[in-house]
């Protein structure tokens, strides 16, 4: 096959493919030419081109999220690699194997006034699992040690605690020379560690479980996992157990409490003690609800067992007593075998009863509420078809999404690693490129949409990707959370109202545009958005809501359940 004449590059690429990297997002440049040549000519690698490096990083992240496998991003030298950093940080905290490959100038030209040359070593130090500099040329006698270093780097990303890795490539001219070679023989694929529950961890679990009578299992962001879902449902047969989930956990079952903030709003001060757990078991990644964080931090929890390999010392609720290094399915499956007996406590059933009462009162409030973000979300979420991949941008959108019962056939995603608005659209685009036969719907706020509009600046976005923009005139989240609304800087500095045009962006990228500003139009335009022929492109529905009323409606929503 044809490839670059730089033997270090061609050998690195063959090793990367063996370690599972078969998709790469490329951004244009010149210094990265040897990398692009080697990758584009490799028969097992699929590539797409995304000009904006910040967007490219998040597109790759969305692809890796779907594949649960390493996905690469390639850029030229200089400031280009700095634009990957938001995606690198998100991948780090969301535990996604993103592979950054940055071209560089030869070391002797760093800090000597050469163009597109910065100090690239160590840029991502605080948010990567490993970093390695790859030499241009590698001799036959160095093949074994060269391969070993690459396998070790990929192994740090593919272990129980997954995450981003960085390879830096100092490259000298000429950059475009090509040779023909046979497929290279390289090191074997890294073997992942065992996920089995150790005897010591099993004893910790047994001791904590049998010493408690109020048992809470809290599930954060994770990919769908049928094994975990089934064992959690079985555990709920024990009345002392409550399972709290958010839709980003993709664990949906009638026995679980899905809308945590909604349920917490109905617990009075007098009832509080009865709803506080003795034992907390947490699985998965980030939790969206600030209310549950505050609730657990102030609860007299005796034991908090964190399950998994990633961030073993992360103590979100300030109650951590042990981290169990195993998969959630293995740990949860062990509980029935170590449990002394079903506890007579009705702790879990008490939580679920409160949840049922709220579900009964929901329709009454929604029916009588004025036109607002809340009533729009009621219609939008109810309109999403089965088997859709639903992506939620950050700030108010992902929070509103937690107030409505999730649908079991829908998969839910959000960038909750760092919770920024900067790459929501690009991440969803990346996911849609992997699952091309599935419908992907992104719900975004207006600021998030404008911030990441370069997600559409490529030739890959297809008709399976639809966007709903909730335009409430800026950062509506700042009217919801405590603090900003009491300052005179709210409108200019926090909400940052602007005159940018969603329709204008759609015209620039040749996308279909729809608009709505009342419930009847939302309902009809949602149907149009999801069924229209877009001629191979994406489509966007912009929904205008009154930003000065949304916060009052939401506050009244929570008050509505106070008396339950």
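Q: What amino acid sequence fits the structure above?
A:
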């Amino acid at each position: 096959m044809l490839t670059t004449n730089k033997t270090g590059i061609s050998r690195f690429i063959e090793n990367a493919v063996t370690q599972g990297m078969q998709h790469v997002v490329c951004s244009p440049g010149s210094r990265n030419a040897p990398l692009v040549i080697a990758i584009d000519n490799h028969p097992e690698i699929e590539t797409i081109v995304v000009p904006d490096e910040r967007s490219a990083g998040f597109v790759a992240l969305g692809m890796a999220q779907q594949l649960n496998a390493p996905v690469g991003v390639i850029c030229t030298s200089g400031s280009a690699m700095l634009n990957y950093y938001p995606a690198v940080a998100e991948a780090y905290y969301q535990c996604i194997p993103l592979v950054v490959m940055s071209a560089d100038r030869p070391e002797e030209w760093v800090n000597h006034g050469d163009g597109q040359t910065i100090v690239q070593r160590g840029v991502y130090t605080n948010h990567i699992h490993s970093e390695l500099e790859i030499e241009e040329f590698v001799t036959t006698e160095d093949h074994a040690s060269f391969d070993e270093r690459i396998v070790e780097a990929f192994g740090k990303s593919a272990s129980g605690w997954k995450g981003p890795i960085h390879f830096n490539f100092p490259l000298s001219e000429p950059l475009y020379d090509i040779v023909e070679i046979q497929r290279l023989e390289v090191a074997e694929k890294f073997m992942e560690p065992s996920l089995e529950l150790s005897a010591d961890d099993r004893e910790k679990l047994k001791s904590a479980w049998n010493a408690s009578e109020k048992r809470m299992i809290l599930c954060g962001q994770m990919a769908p996992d049928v094994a975990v879902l089934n064992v959690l449902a079985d555990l709920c047969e024990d009345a002392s157990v409550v399972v709290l989930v958010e839709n980003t956990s993709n664990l949906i079952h009638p026995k679980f409490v899905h809308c945590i903030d909604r349920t917490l709003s109905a617990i009075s001060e007098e009832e509080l003690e009865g709803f506080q757990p003795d034992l907390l078991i947490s699985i998965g990644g980030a939790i969206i609800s600030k209310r549950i964080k505050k609730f657990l931090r102030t609860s007299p929890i005796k034991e908090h067992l964190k399950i998994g390999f990633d961030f073993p010392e992360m103590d979100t609720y300030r109650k951590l007593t042990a981290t169990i290094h195993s998969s959630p399915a293995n740990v949860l499956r062990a509980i029935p075998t170590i449990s002394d007996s079903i506890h007579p406590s009705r702790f879990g059933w008490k939580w679920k009863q409160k949840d049922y009462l709220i579900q009964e009162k929901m329709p009454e409030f929604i029916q009588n509420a004025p036109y607002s973000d809340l009533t729009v979300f009621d219609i939008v979420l109810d309109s999403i078809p089965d088997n859709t991949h639903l992506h939620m941008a950050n700030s108010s959108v992902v929070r509103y999404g937690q107030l409505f019962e999730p649908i079991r056939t829908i998969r839910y995603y959000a960038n909750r690693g760092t919770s920024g608005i900067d790459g929501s659209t690009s991440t969803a685009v990346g996911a849609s490129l992997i699952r091309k036969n599935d419908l992907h719907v992104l719900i975004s706020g207006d600021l998030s949409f404008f911030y990441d509009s370069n997600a559409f600046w490529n030739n890959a976005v297809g008709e399976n990707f639809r966007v709903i923009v909730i335009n409430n005139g800026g950062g509506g989240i700042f009217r919801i959370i405590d603090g900003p609304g009491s300052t005179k800087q709210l409108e200019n500095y926090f909400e940052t109202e602007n005159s940018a045009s969603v329709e204008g962006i759609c015209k620039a990228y040749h996308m279909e545009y729809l608009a709505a500003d009342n419930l009847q139009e939302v309902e009809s335009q949602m149907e149009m958005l999801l069924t229209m022929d877009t001629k191979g492109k994406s489509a966007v529905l912009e929904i205008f809501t009154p930003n000065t009323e949304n916060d009052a409606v939401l506050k009244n929503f929570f008050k509505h359940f106070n008396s339950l």
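Q: And what stands out in the fold?
A: The chain has three domains: 2-180, 199-354, 369-559.
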